[in-house]
Amino acid sequence: MKLIFKFSIFTFILTTICFSCYGEDTNAPSLIEHSPRIYSSTNIVEIFIGVLSGIVTALLIFSASWIFKNGIAPWYQRLIYKGVDISGDWIFIEPISDNSQRTWRMSLNQSAHKVYGDLSIIRKYPDGKELISNLTLRGELWEGFLNAALRSKSRKRLSFAAALLKVTGGGETISGQYILRNLQNDEIMSRETVFVRNA
């Protein structure tokens, strides 16, 4: 879409310049008697106005498209959305066999079916050491199921995850599977999670 938009702008500007430079001149001699065209200040002004008009038109089209995509369409979707609202803070505490625990904290925002937010995974060891992974979450909620993709915020600790979760308990719990990259051994691991609202 962006490529088409840029190409349209380029074509429009190029066409405007060509017509400004080589437009029909009723006082010009016949094709056989062509002579080099002499540009006056009026010609230059016409070229400038043509180019400027093309740029302004392109900006207006881009602005209208952006307003519709980021303003009107999301507002209308929120207006007609009648599904469950899972925005807010969620928590899941996972016990580990070595007497440590892993705490999952999920903070979600919702716009109709679109869901976005953050996930923090905090592992606390018996010696007091903590290992924290912070990820961004982007997903879609459809018929009570949340399908989400996650990526680590830090480029120094790259981690990825995918989740398929179901809203249960009348909207008070979110349960399902997370599949993610384990930063400790660089292996793929899966976790069964049951998040509850952290009121």
Give the arrangement of secondary structure elements:
Elements: H1 2-22, H2 41-80, E1 88-95, E2 101-111, E3 114-124, E4 130-142, E5 145-152, E6 160-168, E7 173-182, E8 187-197
Antiparallel strand pairs: 1-2, 1-8, 2-3, 3-4, 4-5, 5-6, 6-7, 7-8
Helix pairs in contact: 1-2
Please explain how this structure is put together.
The protein is built from two helices and eight strands. It has 199 residues and is an alpha+beta fold. It folds into two domains: 2-80, no CATH class; 88-197, Quinohemoprotein amine dehydrogenase alpha subunit, domain 2 (Lipocalin), CATH 2.40.128.120. An eight-stranded antiparallel barrel has the order 1-2-3-4-5-6-7-8. α1 runs antiparallel to α2 (41-80). The longest helix has 40 residues, at 41-80. 14% of the residues are buried. Residues 22-35 have low confidence and may be disordered.
Gist?
The protein has 199 residues and is α+β, with helices and mostly antiparallel strands. The protein has helices at 2-22, 41-80; strands at 88-95, 101-111, 114-124, 130-142, 145-152, 160-168, 173-182, 187-197. It has two domains: 2-80, no CATH class; 88-197, Lipocalin, CATH 2.40.128.120.
The top level CATH class name of the largest domain: Mainly Beta
Number of strands: 8
Identify the CATH architecture of the largest domain.
Answer: Beta Barrel
Q: Going across the major beta sheet, what is the strand order? A: 1-2-3-4-5-6-7-8
The proportion of strand residues reads: 35-45%
Using brief descriptors, characterize the structure shown.
2 domains, 199 residues, alpha+beta, 2 helices, 31% helix, eight-stranded antiparallel beta barrel, Lipocalin
